[in-house]
Amino acid sequence: MASLRCRRDFCGVICLILTYFSVFYADYVVIQYVLIPAYADSVWGTLHGSLFNLVLLLLLACHSKAVFSDPGMVPLPDTALDFSDLRSQSSRMNERGCEGWTVCSRCETYRPPRAHHCRVCQRCIRRMDHHCPW
């Protein structure tokens, strides 16, 4: 699923490559121009370099997991639903009995609270905070 999403979002792939390139370049600069000149003959240089790279590795692992994990798509119905009577009523409670659920005007399906429609995937996404770079 992640490879399909990457093929459709060329700008997201470019942003991901630029992000990782910038992080690795910053790691090179910190080690080459800060730690080595300041701690050339000390054990502290090795300790600081190891801890910095450990934190960097953990940050990259968390970022990679957020980028490539499934954001939780709301399943689309098999048939088109008629929402003409639902839009005229209060959107606080729908016929499913769930508070906060609304109807998405683009994909015409029930949308849980805090879900948003993604224009790249053409689906409603539950956790939009890490799904798209925009």
UniProtKB/TrEMBL annotation:
The keyword Acyltransferase applies. It holds the Pfam family DHHC. The keyword Transmembrane applies. Residues 101-134 form the Palmitoyltransferase DHHC domain. It catalyses: L-cysteinyl-[protein] + hexadecanoyl-CoA = S-hexadecanoyl-L-cysteinyl-[protein] + CoA. Its EC number is 2.3.1.225. Its main location: membrane. Belongs to the DHHC palmitoyltransferase family. This is Palmitoyltransferase. PROSITE patterns: DHHC (PS50216). It is found in: Membrane. PANTHER family: PALMITOYLTRANSFERASE ZDHHC16. It comes from Ameca splendens. It is a multi-pass membrane protein.
